[in-house]
Amino acid sequence: MKNKQIHPKNISEAALILRSGKLCSFPTETVYGLGADANDDNAVLAIYQTKNRPNFNPLIIHCADMEMAKTLVDFSPLALELAQFWPGPLTLVLPKKKTAPISDLVSAGLNTLAIRIPANKIAHELLKATGRPLAAPSANPSGKLSPTNAQMVIKSFENKVPVLDGGACEAGLESTILTINDNEIIQLRAGAIAREDIEEKIAKIIKIAKQDDKISAPGMMKSHYAPSASLRLNVNNPNPDEAYLAFGKTQNLPNPIKNLSPLGDLKEAAKNLFSYLNELDDGKIKKIAVAPIPNQGLGEAINDRLKRASTPR
Ligand code: AMP
Ligand code: MG
User: Fold this and answer.
1) At residue 214, does pLDDT exceed 60?
2) How far is the CA of 57 from the centre of ligand 2 (A)?
3) How many C-beta neighbours within 10 Å does residue 212 have?
């Protein structure tokens, strides 16, 4: 089979694929995205089909810059304040402009769009070269672990989708998603920027959307980001038949073990989370025990993903 990895010096090749209405996976600072021209119905449809994603679950649109973003959504003063975190791993759900050049399939019939400007240099250059907003959910089959390197994308789509290879993702967790409702900021998904860090910088409180809120992200499904093996959380002493996903100092164990961060650093743990889960989830191991992760800062997003990954399907 022809290997579909594209070297990052050939960004124009990836841009050409996208401009011709085909899918191409690309790196961002969060996870690898499965990109398509956001204004091409067939290309967007191909995202849903390739991922086997329910079509009521809308997609995040990636923009090269503020100029492109402003053609898609309306920015209130508060939204502009939040946009100071761009480029970066923050997604804003904002009112869609009637004139937005975006396929209706992207927003799954909602009158809002989820957009962000990624900080990853290769993603930025690709967006510039393509010259169009790109719809790009994580490049994994729906419900499975998000890919944080090109090999994970190749493996999960059996080499059917070309991948612009930018190495390992810097954050390793999906973006934080915020929306604004009646001048209140609401977090729809915890992610690669910690809520506390945003609150501190803008000196405002961010509310957390509840699972059953009407406003909640359709992607906040209970089971998501799941490996094939079962997960048991908050485990200090794994059983003999479990692989162990450790965090911080651990005693010597006979179990297969990967340590998210031996020094107990949450940023390092976030970066390693999906790739280590993927490595432990090799098909032979049926049970994975996970060490307790402190629930502050990025720990909020890490625990969110672990909880979903451990929910029985
Ligand atoms: P993914 O692209 O796989 O990281 O998932 C995108 C996330 O953004 C999902 O949780 C979606 O439900 C959410 N999302 C996208 N567009 C909207 C929107 N217009 N309103 C609310 N949530 C959205
Ligand atoms: Mg995803």
Assistant:
1) no
2) 10
3) 7
